[in-house]
Amino acid sequence: MFFALLPDDDTRAAIAARAARLPRGGRAVPAANYHITLLFVGRADAARLQCLCHAAATVEPRPFSLALDRVGVFGRAGALWLGTGHLDGGLLAWREALLARLAADCGLRPERQAWIPHVTLRRKWRGEPPQGPVDPVLWQGDGGFHLMCSEADPAGGVRYHSLAVFPRPKAG
User: Fold this and answer.
1) Do β-strands 2-5 and 145-152 pair in parallel, antiparallel, or remain unpaired?
2) What are phi and psi of 79, to 5 degrees?
3) What's the domain range around 71?
């Protein structure tokens, strides 16, 4: 399980268009799986899932803007990604508030690596990232986020499913 930002349809289509312009190689990530991971959770039983959802619901969402304007590779993982060269400070502070709440309420341990907001475009990429300028994708987020679950896809790869959405829709 992981907490994630999901793009709206227009942003998803723009990311897919950038991915289509890249050289062939690796295994393409389906556009339906595009997301930015906020925090990795791992496995969770029902009690932990309830704690995570309750704690996440208390964190005030914050709108953000990201320009996805660079391509990179996580070499060991073989992941080719589209990310940002300028991190929205408000998004970083909001993510830290979410992590602090989940740590305090549910014992979630902070990740040791620096957070690099990115959308994975290809898996099993070999070599360096493609060179050259990237036509930026502007991602405007309303601050909503999801608790996601991954499951193996019979055709290979994985599928992601939203288990909970935050903020929760208000009863009206």
Assistant:
1) antiparallel
2) -105, 120
3) 2-166
